[in-house]
Amino acid sequence: MNDLMVGLDKKKRKKIGQAKNRLINNSKSDRVILFINKMLLIFVVIIVLVPLLYVLIGSFLQPQVLLTQGISFNPEHWSLDGYRRIFNDGSILRGFLNSIMYATGFTVISVGVTILAGYSLSVDGLVGKKFFMVFFLFTMFFNGGMVPTYLLVKELGLINTVWAVILPGAIGVWNIILARTYFKGLPNELKEAARIDGASDVKIFLSIILPLSKPIIFVLALYAFIGQWNSYFQAMIYLEDRSLYPLQLILREILIQNEVQPGMIADQLARAEMQRVAEMIKYSAIVVSSLPLLIMYPFFQKYFEKGVMVGSLK
């Protein structure tokens, strides 16, 4: 008897849900809005995917086909010569490893200092908290500029070193504010209960705050890694040794200055042939430089969405 009643209740709930869906589906305004949203999403997806597919397919095409016919889906026109020349060239591989080193070091320092500063500013009992907030906010609107920054880096002896790329700009005030907002949204009852149990501030931070802060940590790490990975300006200013160049600076030479190293193209090739091969190398270099971000983002996506929403709403 009870099973029969449960079955009837399920059927009733199902019919009620279907009736609600019919009412929603019959709403003309809702259907218009949903149709417009779908069209906009499809348009945005096309705008994003078309250049990506063009570059990806272009990196596999033979140079003469790419310049004369454009994109071709004929397997006979495809070639791995661009990737072979990239991986055989020492400068691009060295730049790739340098970029990983710069981005990793920058991320560790940036996230570490940002988390410590954000948590400190979220504590109610911090002496001088308003002064520090005003001081940090002041730097968002006013700074010394490029020349004083260069002179400071030079006086510190960081020119033409790894630290010249990692240290300047490692601290972002906006990231500190984002971390502070997230920490202020955590329940104070957890910290109070830990203090009652005799836990120190360091113990509370390491054992309670950090485990609850994975979303914001991953968000800050993603921001820092992507920002440093795509950066080339600081390396262009502070680095003189080509062996320290990041991948983006080498890629800039290939894309903008059209400078391809002799090791990537044989010396006996004619100038026209060099231009055709250089065109293929450009697309291949773009794909190689984008791979780390494309591989990393799916693993960070859930933390990214959660951290941004929590940090913005709370």
Automatic annotation (TrEMBL):
A GO cellular component annotation in the UniProt record: plasma membrane
- State the species of origin: Evansella caseinilytica
Which segments cross the bilayer? 32-57, 100-119, 131-151, 163-183, 204-226, 280-300
Which parts of the chain are coiled coil?
Answer: none
- How does the entry describe its membrane topology? Multi-pass membrane protein
Keyword Metal-binding among UniProt keywords: no
* Protein's name in the database: Putative aldouronate transport system permease protein
Q: Which UniProt keywords apply?
A: Cell membrane, Membrane, Transmembrane, Transmembrane helix, Transport
Protein's cellular compartments:
Cell membrane
- Family named by the database record: Belongs to the binding-protein-dependent transport system permease family.
Per its UniProt record, what InterPro entries does this chain match?
MetI-like (IPR000515), MetI-like_sf (IPR035906)
